[in-house]
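Progress against Task 2.4 (sequence-to-structure conversion) is shown through the following example record, which the project officer requested during the mid-term review.
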Amino acid sequence: MHFIRFSILLVIAAILLIACRQTSAEKKVYTPAGDIAEGNPVMVAEGTSSATDAGGSELPETEQADVPQDGEATDELPVEEQETEESAQPETEQPDDSSEDEAVEGETQDTEKEIEKIPAPQLPSRMSHVVKAIFETNKGSFIIAIYPEIAPLSAPHFIMLIREGFYDGIVIHRYESGFVVQMGKVFDENGTPLYPDDPKKAQLAQITIPDEPCLSENTATTISFAKPDAPDSASCQFFINLGDNRRLDDLNYGFTVMAQVVHGMDVVRSLRVGDEIGNAQIIEQGMDPGL
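Structure tokens generated for the chain above:
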């Protein structure tokens, strides 16, 4: 009886011993003693190209640890993002070579705008090219000097109208004391010709000229074309300034001084609405105006 118990104990002891040895063998497979001694429990930390499980099998690429290598910049952007970031830099940080050219151009434009204006009293002595004309009215006659030098577009047009007899028989249609006396109107407010027996007047009134700068001043005695509030619209109506109207120099695209009353300003001041220009003509060389 004692022998059987002893035998059973021996068998149990043998089974326990075998079980302990198997456990020790399994631990060596999952935790190699060499790795523990070297302090590298994770194989991918060695920089190997692929991770392996404890049995040495290669893991799927999606399961590999995404661990940056030593010295790698962890905040480095992908190429596409770098390009986007560079392109997002403000344009003001880039040197603009055109800025100097624009500045020079602006200075040139400012210089061009600063045009000397010749005061009315100086016009007779400073103009080398002068064309004179005489206007005979029911109140008397006055003589004007036309200056193509300061009005290369307006002056020739004015001379043409006088030569064509446009102002013969024209009625003064506007007078404002201290401001202007105006003439040359050939259509009423409805567009009906005021001189139906002289169709040439209506034809000439349709001709317009481009705007040009005012190189003198709209002051007493000077003459400019009248025009509506539109660019390049001057045609045939003109006014004689009775006072200081320099605000007109640049108003409404500019009223260009093209001529000046040089004799008979008292007659001009006496003109009223309804008075008539009997005749207007260019004073040709050797012609005696009789004044």
